[in-house]
Write a structure and sequence with these properties.
Helices cover 75% and strands 0% of the residues. The protein contains 18 helices and no strands.
Length: 428
Amino acid sequence: MSTSRPETHHVPATEPQEPAGEAETPVQRPAGRLGGLLSLLALGNTAMFMVYMGVGQVLLPVQVEALDPADKVANLGLVSGVAAVFATLFNPLAGLLSDRSGRRNPWILGGGLAALGALALLGSVRGILLVTVGWCLVQATMNVYQAAITAVVPDRVPMERRGLASAMVGIGTPVGTIIGVTVASAFVPKDVGTGYLVLGAVVAAVAVLFTALVRERKLPAARTAALGRQLAAFGSAMRSGDFRWAFIGRFLLMLGYFAVVLYQLYVLQDHIDLPEGLSPAGAVAILSPIGAVCTLLSTVIGGTLSDRIGRRKPFIALSCAFTAIGMMIPVLSPTWPGMLVFGVLTGLSFGCFMAVDTALVTLVLPSAEDAARDMGVLNIANAGPQIIAPFMASLVVASPGGYAALFVTGAVITILGALAVVPIRGVR
């Protein structure tokens, strides 16, 4: 691992503290207790992805299209891109503040409850400007929640169980996608505001449940540096070569993936030849569960196998490569069967990537002492592409190549993401 400081780890908040000054590792917790924590983490991430995917894939595109059908592609790019700036800013900042406070639960609870209010507001507004403001608030509150709950794994899970933990956390992506998209589609097109309220109520309820059941103690005050020093240390994470390449690889995969996924509803409206009687919203409600089940299977299998054989990089590289292959299918066959194949391939590859890459990232953190801060920096690779992808996608779709060019662009970018893991030296 390329880092200038020896590796240290947070002491789990529910365990006795080690003597000061000793290098620390996560305490071995009984399987039952670890299982309960991982189950709650899976639930917490499920609620998070219900909001992200239910809103991002269904409710927001429908709301934007209803306001201005002629300029829906450009407007969705504007709304998504500007709001993603807030995700990029709030995720590492919230991680830094939770590190400084020595607590995770208050940030999880506060973020979840605030997200309910922000989603209620978003569902009630009219006009592109107000929708942009509302989605910005949702991104800000949800990333406070996300930064804190993401840091629980490096805080409290032993290194040799990180693959299992990543797989359990990764379950939230497909399950949250299935439930979120299904719930959101049920409120299209006439009751979008209620859809926002339902998704907000879910994430708020899960935040309350998680913080009620996961007990924690405040980390020792000596572990939290001055705020100014922590702000200055943001750049230090990127000086670690392994961490930097992990960041680049995730950034590229996410950029290629979201450039296509954020426009999936419009792709189905304007590019794919759907069967008689199947609406674009109905097609999304079919595609998302198929892709999500594939993601679930590959998340569990990929995370477990990578633990067993002790290798991460080959799984990540192959995941990026198969994502690129899947994106080429709708170019060669812009049909409903072609989209089904696309959903299966990208679901399998994306699930494996997220499980294994999350495990890899926890092994290349420059300092586990600042785990939430550094995971927040890495999460810029999740949020940053969502800034670039909508603008990039709207420009590509407006070109003569249209949606076919968008799929090709996404495939090329994900291949570059596969190549980015090659220089990582600290993890095989």
